[in-house]
Amino acid sequence: MLYVKAPAKINLTLDVLYKREDNYHEVEMVMTTIDLADRIGLSLRQDGKIVLSSTDQFVPTDQRNFAYQAARLLQQRFKISAGVTIKIEKEIPIAAGLAGGSTDAAATLRGLNVLWQLNLTLDELADIGAEIGSDVPFCVYGGTAHATGRGEQIREISAPPTCWVVLAKPKVGVSTADIYGGLNLTQVKHPNTQEMLQAIEQCDYKAMCRELGNVLEDVTLKLHPEVVKIKSLMERSGADAVLMSGSGPTVFGLVDSEIRVSRIVNALRGFCEDVYAVRMLGERHKLA
Ligand code: ATP
């Protein structure tokens, strides 16, 4: 069995510029991978089938699963006669704004590149990943990036200043389509992506905290008061900066002292089940 790590991402910034003629939104984001990860096990099958299972009963195991789609796409594109058994050990909460499905697809692409001896570059894998979803190319590379287009255009940037990331996911389901639908681009406060890029470039933790911004946050906060509550709990218990990731509902706080991390985690635990304290993984994957 070949094991591949599939880390989640957070958005340090998420901006929506306009709706395109192809109905996608033109976005601009700064994203980084964090050390909260699924583990994907891959083993070769001679019968050509793709067989997928997951430790989480809510993850689809058929062609709706992005990891399944990744395997099928590679199989068809490169006329592979072998199959694969995919085992997803799920750690990343589902439908949380952390790109759980996209990172499983990306890890499957990287792993099958090795298992099926395809010798593709990360750029080639990222192009294939873009056919599955806009966040997949970023997850193929990992690390930290400035993403544009519909999110699939990736420019690698340096790792953010070291800190802890505390995450809390309230028990509400958020539909990404509803959040985008509720967005009124004439009324939102856009994050300053250039200032964020500069903060990271200069390794300036305080500036990074100041420049956190997500144009979707207000829409989700209006629909889900639980998210407001978690945000203020995190702020009050000592996080340096707090933001919702993606379309939510996960909220993350940046913290530069370990003592405050445990205080925040304890404060949140009484209120919500899914609480994590992890490090950023600022650098790109060092594999195939
Ligand atoms: P993003 O941040 O990219 O918007 P997300 O973290 O909000 O993604 P996912 O965890 O990817 O959302 O789940 C969204 C939906 O994708 C789920 O409802 C699930 O049915 C489907 N899905 C497909 N493949 C997977 C997978 N491997 N893991 C989790 N969900 C998956």
Number of domains: 2
- The CATH architecture of the largest domain is 2-Layer Sandwich
What are the distinct ligands in this entry? Answer: adenosine-5'-triphosphate
- Fill in the CATH topology of the largest domain: Ribosomal Protein S5, domain 2
Key traits:
Alpha-Beta Plaits; 10 helices; 288 residues; alpha+beta; globular; eleven-stranded mixed sheet; binds adenosine-5'-triphosphate
What report would you give on this structure?
By secondary structure, the chain is α+β, with helices and mostly antiparallel strands. It has 2 domains: 2-156, Ribosomal Protein S5, domain 2 (2-Layer Sandwich), CATH 3.30.230.10; 164-279, Alpha-Beta Plaits (2-Layer Sandwich). It has helices at residues 66-77, 100-115, 122-129, 136-141, 176-181, 193-201, 205-211, 217-223, 225-236, 258-269, and strands at 2-19, 25-45, 50-54, 83-89, 144-148, 153-156, 164-169, 213-214, 241-244, 251-255, 274-281. Strands 1, 2, 3, 4, 5, 6, 7, 8, 9, 10 and 11 form an 11-stranded mixed β-sheet that branches. The longest helix is centred in the middle third of the chain and has 16 residues, at 100-115. The protein is globular, with a radius of gyration of 19 Å. Bound molecules: adenosine-5'-triphosphate. Residues 59-60, 64-67, 88, 94-102, 104, 135, 176, 246-247 line the site of adenosine-5'-triphosphate.
